[in-house]
Amino acid sequence: MTQAPVSATKSDRLGYLDFYRGFTVVQMVAAHLLMHSVAPMKGDQTARLFLFSYAELFSAGFLMLAGANVGLIVSRLSRIPGFDTLRFFAYTAFGLYVMGWSYNLLEGSGPFTSVVQAIGVGVLAAYLLYHARVPTWAFAVFGLGFIGAYYLAVAAVIEVDPSVRANFAWHMLAGHGEVTREALDRLYPHKYWFCMFGIVPTCGYVILGAFIERLRGGWLIAFCALCLVLALVSHVMPEMTYNARTHMVLRMDLKFFVQILPLYTGWLLTFRYLYPRRVAGPFARMVEGFGRLSLDFLIFHWIFIGLFTLTTPFLDKGPLDFAAVQWIRTAMVLAALWWTLPRFDAYRKRVSGKPGFLRRSWIILLTAYAVAIVTSAMPVLRPVRIAAGVIAALVFIRAYPAARDEWRRRCTPARST
Questions:
Q1: How many CB atoms lie within 10 A of CB 236?
Q2: Largest CA distance in the chain
């Protein structure tokens, strides 16, 4: 099994990956709105089924798409003579880890790793496999190894030393800021759990995404056949109940892993071969735009969810049922994102070239971090902490593209500039 050449055109390849990424983040809006609704926490089984089964599968797909994009980045950077690609990916991982903490402040993860930081480390891990020039099958081995070892390690550690639940390093590498004793004790039906946004499982999913993207020809057909078998097997596995999850932490069991591979692969191939040949129009362009600006989407969707959640008491008291209320709120958030993202992107391009832009951004970001840390233990200053988190997150997405350009310049030899 060898690495497949990049045969698709530049725009076509970016188009289907961005469309798929946009497709996943639209599902994410619906899921996060459910998390902030009253009804799912009062026994709405339909909402729980969507949130803890269907929506989480697309969340894992978002991680795998990060891995699928690594090969595209490597292919582009390899065309620059003498470019230090390893150094560039190291810069990116470090930048996402430090600047990505602003996302944690915004959505409540606290000092622990969350999705932005975990993806940064996962992308670096996937690139290291490209850098080592390992064969395609080795990507599958490493991806499954991260996830499989994680399953076994978590089960063994919890059995041997339950006090690990309170260990900071454990949360940083494997768990999540929201993992609590109550959450662990509620796990059912078995103990082989993990949180998707810990660094270790995220590396596994990102690497698996890179593996699937590299498959071509007969190997791709064989993998699709395997996915079909897994999809059939998942139907006879025990159902994933609400008690197997917790509502603010993405925690998966074995059935989830069996389901995600065929679902992700099916959608990936669908968009690869149909987009843009059959998927077109204003809606498709909107979804592709969401995918292209997915980092901005992650930040702004939390801001808009926080704002539109204020309408929950009024909508819940009205004549509409729960499903109608959710459709209305989802449409409101997506409309706000559709209007805001391109305008924010245009504004960012205007200001990012000004002298001292990055230095000022880092000063504001670190100051916001300091304010959030100082006020975190003061309930009376909670509005100040929330404001600091919002400011830090907006500074992050405002400055990150310029930071990547700066890292790219540092990694490019003078003769190639």
A1: 6
A2: 68
